[in-house]
Each structure stands twice: as C-alpha cells, then as structure tokens.
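hi! just following up on the protien thing from before. the input was this:
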Amino acid sequence: MLLSIITTHRPATELGFLLHKNPARAQCLEVAAGTAYVCYPEADETRCTASLILDVDPIALVRGSKRLTSDGEGFGLGQYVNDRPYASSSLLAVAMRRVFSTAMTGRCKERPELAAASIPLQISVPAVRCRGGADLVPRFFEPLGWVVEAVTSPLDPNIPEWGTSPYVDVRLTGSQRLADALHHLYVLLPVLDDAKHYWVSSDEVDKLVRAGSGWLESHPEKGLIARRYLAHRHPLTRDALARLAEIDDTEPEDIDNAVPLAELADRPQPLAVQRRGAVLAALRSAGARTVADLGCGEGTLVAELLADRSVERIVAVDVSCRALEIAGRRLRLERMSERQRSRLEIVQGALTYRDDRLKGLDAAVLMEVIEHVDPPRLAALAHTVFGQAAPSTVVVTTPNVEHNARFADLAAGQFRHRDHRFEWTRAQFRRWATGTAHRYRYVVRFVPIGTDDPEVGAPTQMAVFTKEAA
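and the predicted 3d structure came back as:
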C-alpha cells in the first residue's frame, strides 16, 4: 500500500517538521499488520513528497482475531490470497495513526504556526478499494474542500464484459491543515472500502467523533460515513450520529434512524457514559456547587454539569482553543439563556501554570487528562490543582493499562489514544494518587469504572480526593 503526501509550500521541506519525520533518512516502524516505511522521494525548497509504504504480512493477518478477505468468506485459501496487502483500507488508516500520531494531533514544536495553517497539499493513494463505485470518492472528499480525481480502469481491456476494476486511483488536491488532511484519510479510507480488519466495538464511536471533529458533523454524507465506519452496526451508528448532532446543533430526534430511549434500555452503556456517570456521582456525593472541568475538551461533561441544577457555577478549562470552539458549538452558547450562560465560564489555560481563576471552587475534575501530560510536568499540574487551586474535592480518572489486553484492536504496547504520554497500571496510579494526597493534605479513595475484570481490573480507574480538615 502506498500513500504520498506532496506540498509546494515554501520551503517545502518543512513538511518533515509537520510529519515529525526527517526527510534526510528513511524510517521503518513495525505495526500490527506488518512494516511501515516512510521516505521522501523528493525534498527540496519548492516541492516535497513524503511516502508511507505499508508492507502487509498476510500470515500476520490470518493470526489476527478477524480474518478479512475481499469477498467475505471467500475460497479455501482466501484468508491467505486476497487483496488486503495491496488495496488501501483500514490497514493503511491504522498504520497512519501509528506512524503520524503526533502530526494528527496538530502539534509541532518547531513550526507551531505552520501546523495551524492551511498549506497546499496533494494526496495520492493509487489503489483504494471502493465498494459502491468511484463516484463515492468525490461525494466524500469534495465537501471537505478537496479537488478530487478518481480514476478507474477496466479489469481487462481485452474483455469489456468483465467490467471495471473495483480499485480506484485517488488523488486529492487542496489547501488544508495537514492534521485535518490526515484525519480525512483516517476516517474515509475504511469507509470507501466499507470494511475493517478488526472487530468494531463501542470504542470506535469515540474514534470516529474525535477524528471527525470539526468536519464530519456538518458533512452531507455523515450518515453513510458513520454507518460504513461502524460496520453497519446500527446501535453504534445511532450513538455516533447523536453525538455528532450535539456538535452540529441538530436535535438527535431529527436524525432519520434515531430511536426512543426506551428501546435502548437493554444496551450496555458505553464506557464514556459510565465514566461521566461515576464522576457526576462523586461530585453529587461531595455536595459540590462550583466545579471546574479541567481539560474539558469538547464539553461533553460540561453539558451534563449544566443539566444538573444543583451545580451553580462551572469553569470549563482547556489548553486548546479549537477544542473550546467546538465546546461552544456543542453547548449552543448563542442559544443559551442568560441564566444558564451566567453559570458557565469558558477559559483557555494550561494546567501546569498558576491560574487564580481556579481558586475558591468546591471541586475540580481531571477526566482522562493526566495521561495527556508529559510525566515531567505532572508535578507542576499537581501543584496547580492541589496546591494553588486547592478545591475541597478533586476527581481524577485515567485508563488502566492492564485492561488494554481486553481490547481486540489494540496491539501489544499500543496506547488507547494517539496523544497519550503514558498509561498506568492500578499500582502506578495508586502510588501517584497516594503520594499527591499526602503532599497536599488530601484523603483519597479509588473507584473502578466499567466491568471490573478479576484479572486485569476495570478499564478506567478513578481517584476521589477530599481535602483534610484544617
């Protein structure tokens, strides 16, 4: 499989900074499906091309939990002899996430202004399996601002009755943020193929909403994209469309395939829902009236805090201005009543620096935040939250890395999110939380969230800190 990213931005070699891959040397990285190589066939001031080559091991695919062939069941050797090593699909998308993980976050320490800017890009993926015909390619990519060229060829020029090849040579041209372009490909390559090489679970909804943030919620084909991305699993599709509707200011009940909540009563709650429920229960138990959501992201927890009338004041903090913009849309600030708006303060800030706006609150929440902080900066974060802001209650949740073995789509050693700097075992989290509580005069208790597996524990671990009496 081959993916080429070309820019004529000057100097074009700055593409290497954005991708965090040096144009001066080729690199290789082992991924779940085989080996990924990154090289630069051309790199000068006027034009630079970065190529990702995925060398798929078909035997390794058979060893996986899901054996994917081009035609479903296929013939006896179909699991070994198929198009998966050659046709760009979810295998390439997963390799992109592994190889270009930092680029997909939009971060670039050396060129931060360039990472935030749109630059001229050309994307080439020469063999994409497109179930439904090449016409789907412009339907998916043109609304995102790409000029699309999708070229097909006959299966055999000498035998016209065989028809057209299902493989499409896709070329995209446009001015985009590189991170956005990578997210477009990450979502839409498996959507075009209409198949995934791994089991699709509720975690895929989170991946789709994160990767589609800022573009999918307003896409005219978002329904079709969600269905294909989530392997036509209707409950997951409903969940994804409802969450996208929140961002897009569309009422969930206006979605074509929305269903009454009563019909969903027997469905297991997604882990994200269980996590928010546990955090809210801890805040209610503490009697918190004023709450800071530190690292609020796109405002999902903030929305639930606003719905709780016992919470009188909410301070939503995030370092990302873009995340705060999305949160504003999700919360419908422009439609919010004056009374509701007076309860909410949205502020941009880094949690590793003193911020007097956080003082005097009853509680602070760090929900799935600490694992996004470089370990050397955790002490500064703890001092800001526990030492300077010093609320009566602090609630912290973080993944339990021991439970990762239960996720079929996670390779050994792979984190749950591309931006995680670490993931802790239960013992590591307890050691950090206990030490922090002792240092800043708190008492801490621990709560598992999700199914508490007897061998590897729950998928999420939560610590509730309570300030000791003076």
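The longest strand covers residues 119-129.
The chain is about 30% helix and 20% strand.
cheers
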